[in-house]
Design goal:
By secondary structure, the protein is mostly helical. It has one domain (5-266). The protein is built from 13 helices and three strands, in the order αααβββαααααααααα. It has a three-stranded mixed beta sheet with strand order 1-3-2, with helices on both faces. The protein binds zinc ion (ZN). Zinc ion binds next to α5 and α9.
């Protein structure tokens, strides 16, 4: 079964993948919350075998505190959000697993100038979890029947192989553009509700665009299938207008403590 899986996946995608016509959201999601959490646990184990999880307790505690502040105001409260730093200063990336486990690379932390910018990325990832994008992306990608079989079928190996397949390319390649827009909008809302300056999402996106230009043809993982950065920036410019001027101008970004706790480590 395992041996044949890639072929099965490819052919099923071919048959059912076109259900997501022209990027229109395909909202079918058959994963329950407990299945999502269980899946996330399995994938987290694989992530942590493969990636270099940071052993820096202070850095980890700092990131957890930011994550908890954001998770507290998220629209979804039935999953245990967790935040883990991956020590890889050359990778500008962050991703969320089904069930609320979120990973942040030190390469991304280095790119942020203040705590609110890092919180903006974390809030975007929480947005994917809160809007249940994982189940939706998996259903869209492998097809309803196959996912049903993987989740409810008798061979537990099918599900494990399926999840490792998603792990290889990262979930971000499976999110639709609509998913990304929704995660941006939810993320900005969580950022604001948690008391951060909502404009930090915009300033981070500007940095991403500069980085994108700097690395040229080699796309950063975080860009895998996101809408073009320019388009996202324009949408974020509109979104941020929803928030009070005082929050946009004076909302805290915590530049100093970010420099002390995070940026000083990379100098
Ligand atoms: Zn995203």
């Amino acid at each position: 079964m395992r041996k044949n899986l890639p072929l099965v996946l490819v052919s099923l995608c071919f048959v059912t993948g076109c259900l997501a016509l022209d990027g229109e959201p395909f909202r079918l999601n058959i994963l329950s919350t407990s299945q999502e959490i269980q899946l996330g646990e399995q994938i987290a184990e694989q992530v942590e075998q493969k990636e270099n999880v940071s052993t820096d307790a202070e850095l980890q505690a700092y990131v957890t505190a930011i994550g908890e502040r954001l998770a507290l105001v998220a629209t979804r409260q039935d999953v245990p959000y967790r935040f883990t730093v991956i020590d890889n200063p050359d990778t500008v990336n962050a991703f969320a697993l089904p069930g609320g486990h979120i990973y942040l690379y030190t390469g991304l932390m280095k790119l942020c100038e203040n705590e609110a910018e890092l919180a903006a990325v974390m809030a975007h990832e929480i947005g994917h979890v809160a809007a249940r994008h994982h189940g939706e992306a998996m259903t869209r990608q492998v097809g309803y029947n196959f996912l049903m079989q993987a989740v409810f079928g008798e061979d537990p190996g099918t599900l494990i192989t399926l999840t490792s397949n998603f792990l290889g390319t990262g979930f971000m390649s499976y999110y639709s553009r609509e998913n990304e827009r929704e995660a941006d909008a939810l993320g900005m809302e969580f950022l604001f509700r948690a008391g951060y300056n909502p404009s930090a999402m915009l300033s981070f996106m500007h940095k991403l665009r500069e980085e994108e230009r700097r690395v040229g043809a080699r796309p950063l993982p975080i860009f895998a299938s996101h809408p073009p950065t320019q388009e996202r920036l324009e949408r974020l410019e509109n979104l941020v207008q929803r928030y009070p001027l005082s929050a946009r101008l004076e909302g805290p970004v915590y530049e100093e403590r970010y420099r002390e706790i995070v940026l000083s480590r990379f100098q």
